[in-house]
Amino acid sequence: MHQATAQFEKWVSVSHPAPQSNVRLACLPYAGGSASFFFPVSKALHPTVEVLALQYPGRQTRLHEPRIDNVPEFADQIFAALRHLDDKPLALFGHSMGAVLAYEVALRMQDAGLPAPVRLFASGRRAPSRYRDERMHTATDAELVAELRKLSGTNEMLLGDPDVLAMILPAIRSDYTAIERYRHEPGRRLDCPVTVLTGDSDPRVSLDEAEAWAEHTTGASETEVFRGGHFFLVDRIAEVIGLVARRLGPF
């Protein structure tokens, strides 16, 4: 199998192939998240937009693969999986940790001389240059579970099942290690439009921190505020999909 094809198939899940689509949307999950999270997005946008959901190692179909605990390696691998998709425009959507990964992948596209993403959707994450002293990656398992409950992004039934926790906590901790140790490279800017999505009661992102994404692109930047916390897009999924569809069409 061709190396590029193998990398793509390992990292990318396409639930609803759309060969006639005018644009592709690569969706990058949050810390601890998986490709299946974006199934509703893929279904709703088909066939106009083909959704490519990224599957990180250490979970679901890649449960037994070594986890990645740093953003540069994450971004390098994702870029390698996507870089050969040059037959139609590509947009990037990332939530929380995924937003930072999408930003870093876009920079790698730029550095390689590839066409810029037609749009970066940065959801549920402060700008790359805005840091907080967060150390959940060194927390106990109990503290990590309490954090997940606070953010309301994980099914409560799963958090009460010791066997499930034993399966998912290593990937969550590894992802937290990656994002909490991340530092952006000052002076780097994208050359694509950025749409920022944020929840009005997200404990991890203030409006100022969300709007600061404008400092990271020479293109247009807009901030869309939704009702909800860190996982506002779960409850507001129809609104989010509507916004994405409007921004991506027509090409």
Describe the structure.
The protein has 251 residues and is an alpha/beta fold. Helix content is 39%, strand content 14%. The protein is built from 10 helices and 7 strands. Strands 1-3-2-4-5-6-7 form a 7-stranded mixed β-sheet, with helices on both faces. The longest helix has 19 residues. The radius of gyration is 17 Å and the shape is globular. It starts with a helix and ends with a helix. The model has no long low-confidence stretch (mean pLDDT 93).
Briefly summarize what is shown:
By secondary structure, the chain is of the alpha/beta class.
Q: Note the overall shape.
A: globular
Neighbour order of strands in the largest sheet:
1-3-2-4-5-6-7
Main sheet, how many strands, which sense, barrel?
7 strands, mixed
Structural class: alpha/beta
What pattern of helices and strands is seen along the backbone? Answer: HEEHEHEHEHHHEHEHH
- The CA-CA distance between the termini, in Å, is 32 Å
